[in-house]
Amino acid sequence: MIYGRLLAGAREFIIQAAQPAAVEYGKITDLCDLTSETLKTNPVLLNYAAFSTADNYLYAHTANVIILSQGIALDLGLPREDTRLLSFCAMAHDWGMTEVQELSSKKEYLTDAEFTRVALHSEAGSAKLDTMPDIDSGLKERIKKIVCQVHERVDAKGYPFRLSGKDIDLLAQIIGTADVYEAMTHPRTWREALNPPEVIKLFLEQKSGPVFNLKILKALIHTLSIYPPASLVALSGGEIARVLKPRKGSLTRPLVEILLDAGFAPVQTALLDLYEHPVRDAIARPVSLAELKGKNPEFAAGLESSRWWPEGDE
Ligand SMILES: [Fe+2]
């Protein structure tokens, strides 16, 4: 199973942060080629980016950021070599987080002092790449730069150097956008996940000027739609459904699976292609996890536990 292989690769890579000299660049890019090639013909792989890993969120987070970055790259028509470089940098983007692991599993929001420590992970991750043996120095410098710039933002409010749009490597901007989308749509120990359409809405609002490159944002939305895979929605008839597959060419008419009736009571699940039934059914609104929990806590708990990737299934 291709997602399982990527996840196993991400797990191994994160563990290797303790001994970066052991990492083989070619092995990582070969693994990432498998997923980028698969995405070209089978976008269902994007659905797997909804999984989380219970033992260490970094494993699935890393695999998911790779897949989402590759989805953006595909939509932008990035050359193959750039996609390989992008994929490796996505794999390495949180390597520095392994040094502040205790903070990433805290149950409360970080204090300012702790946030300052976490913010150092970009440079720490970049520095770890110095000891990788099998990359030529020119390529290594570009990789280090990209990894270091993932948290820079177009509006110059990112870190560590508060660079502005034109000074941030395009590949770092792609990974940065995928990283935020992934993080917000997955739970952390101190907060719950947001429903994907809520995150897309926040991205589109970007009230005080663009935070992300609009070309990249457009590619993300073109790839995932307004209702990305795993979105929870209410249909015009009132039923509650989960998005299975966005439809290329229609941002609002994905394939969905109906899970609950209008009163939030479980029904026999059924697939419904909203593209094929444009008159009868449409998405009326997203349904937040909080609303689902309020109406049917048992079902909400089951749905939440289905996001954990089964351990050992790699
Ligand atoms: Fe990240």
Largest sheet strand order:
4-3-2-1-5
CATH class of the largest domain: Mainly Alpha
Beta-strand portion reads: 5-15%
The end-to-end span amounts to 7 Å
Total DSSP helices: 13
Topology as a string of helices (H) and strands (E): HHHHHHHHHHHEEEEEHH
State the CATH topology of the largest domain.
Answer: Hypothetical protein af1432
CATH superfamily of the largest domain: Hypothetical protein af1432
Domain unit count:
2
Question: How many strands?
Answer: 5
Mean pLDDT: 92
Radius of gyration, whole Å: 19 Å
Q: How would you sum up this structure, described in words?
A:
- The chain is of the alpha+beta class.
- It has two domains: 2-224, Hypothetical protein af1432, CATH 1.10.3210.10; 232-305.
- 47% of the residues lie in helices and 11% in strands.
- Strand 2 (240-247) and strand 3 (250-260) form a beta hairpin.
- The protein is globular, with a radius of gyration of 19 Å.
- The N and C termini lie close together (7 Å).
- It binds fe (ii) ion.
- Fe (ii) ion (FE2) binds next to helix 3.
Short structural description:
The protein is of the alpha+beta class and 314 residues long.
SSE topology sketch:
Elements: H1 2-15, H2 25-41, H3 57-76, H4 80-92, H5 101-104, H6 112-119, H7 121-128, H8 137-149, H9 170-184, H10 196-205, H11 214-224, E1 232-235, E2 240-247, E3 250-260, E4 266-273, E5 283-286, H12 289-295, H13 297-305
Antiparallel strand pairs: 1-2, 1-5, 2-3, 3-4
